[in-house]
Structure formats: structure tokens, C-alpha cells
């Protein structure tokens, strides 16, 4: 769209950066899925090779299966996305139900105390941890979670009425994404303290809180030792599984994570090649025209699918979620800045 309105010399570079960012996003979500599978396997005592290589193996197998679903056509991709969406909604509801269930001793030991004003107020202020702890580090990790809002525009060639569907779908995606992320952040921030030991023996039997450190002291728990030594394994600041542990049924949340990561990975695996195919058709850059060829009645970019698969596989081998997230954030921020600049340019010049 940018190429047709402002010229291919503007749309081409944006398309190149944006398609590459989508390919990296496929890798990010696949690694996210692989890390959860790895952790579950290790909890059950199953190790393929080691902690890092297990992520690489699971990720490689997963992205290969997703490629076959993509090659089967858009109909299969759409049906798979509907299934993922239903699972995700069940997990979403399961989480909110869990936040209102009164916590037992086992959940209190990991820092979950139900909705409390003092917990919410404490979690409103920042508390960055570690040598790389900063706002921009957290932004780099979180930002890729908001990039799926462009999925509808990325497959505009397959939409019946793009001019209506793209603005409506994108604005609804922005609204529901913002609302759901805010609800999760606010609810978990009002229920879970930052640091907890997970040890049920740290429940205080008396009323004295002398020498006790941390907000949990007000709830009758003494997590002072792990707070002072910075060795707490549970709590909002330490535990990546906190949403599952707060929810009504832990494994529903695991299923939700699977659905979210696989759905996003599949979406990006479809969108990146389609953007790249359109870029190749304009023949702006040499040596990439090979990837413009489409197959079947829907002009599926099979060659571009394989290219995206190879790029995603290369970044999956990094096997470190936060590292990949930082790279992706830069590519997407460049893309969005250029897209916004193009929209501004088209508006200010009254481009038809």
C-alpha cells in the first residue's frame, strides 16, 4: 500500500525490514513455546541433551510442523488459529477465576494472597533487578507481544474486503490487546507480592513481626532470609510461572501459553512470506526475484515460506528468549516508525 501511494523506493525498504521482523517474531514465539515444553520435560525428569539444546530441538521440530500447516494452505491455517483462539479464551477465563479463589497455604507460600490494596500499591512502583534491569530492557522484552495487531494487514491479499477489514480489524486488535494486557497486569499486580520463598515453614505462628522484611509480613509470612540474600524463587519479580500458579487450574494456563505462542508463530510464518512476495514482485532489489513466484489458486509464496522457515530456524538456535526479543523490538520499532512517517507524509501532502 505504501509503495502504491508514495512510491516503491519508500515502500520497498519498509517491506524488507518489516518482513524480516515478522520472520524473527516467528522464531521468538517458537522459542517461547519450546522453553515451556523444556521446563515441563525437566520437571518430569526428561532431558534430551541439556537445558539449551533441548530448546533448540523442540523449537526446530515445532517450526517444521508449523511450516507444513502453512504449506497446506490458508484454510488449514485459519482452522488451526480458531482452535488456538478457543484454548486461549479458556485459559484467560481460568486465570481470572483463579484470582478470586481464596488462596490456601500452598499458594500463600509462593506469594499469592488474593486482592489487597497494599500489594497493588507496592507493585505500582518499579523494582528492576539484575545488572541489565532497566525500563528499556523490559520494554524490549515486552514489545514483541504487541506486534500481532498487524496480522490482518499482513495478509490483506487474502481478505475479501481489505479496505473495510484492515482498519476495523486492526483497531479492534489494538483495543482488545490493550485491554487484556492491562487487566492481567493490574490483577496479578494486586494479588502477588514481589518476593516469596515457596517454603510453607515460613508461615509465622505468633503476632510479632520484629525483624521481618517485606510486605508479606503483614499477612503472617516471613520471607526475610531470601529477600535479604536475593535468592527468592517465587513472587512476581522472580517467577515466570506466576500466572499459571494463580489461575484456577495450572495446566489450563500452560495450554493457553501453548495456544498463544503457536498461534503467533503460525501467524508470523504466514505473514512474513506474503509481505516478502509482494516486495519481490516490485523487483526493486536484485537477486530476490526468485521468491516472487506463487503457487495454486491463492498464489501461495512457497519459496518465501521456505526462506522464512530458514531465517526463523537460524534465530531459534540462539535459544534465548530475551536476546531474540531485544533484536525483534528494534526491527519492529524501525518498521512502525517508518510506516507512521509514511502515513504522515501521505496525509500532509494530500496524496490520493
From TrEMBL:
Subcellular location: Membrane
Keyword Membrane among record annotations: yes
UniProtKB keywords: Membrane, Transmembrane, Transmembrane helix
Transmembrane segments: 12-37, 57-76, 83-105, 135-157, 169-189, 249-271, 302-321
Location of the Amino acid permease/ SLC12A domain: 1-351
Pfam families given in the database record: AA_permease
Keyword Transmembrane helix attributed: yes
Main location per the UniProt record: membrane
Membrane topology designation: Multi-pass membrane protein
Record's protein name: Amino acid permease/ SLC12A domain-containing protein
Naturally occurring in which organism (per UniProt): Ameca splendens
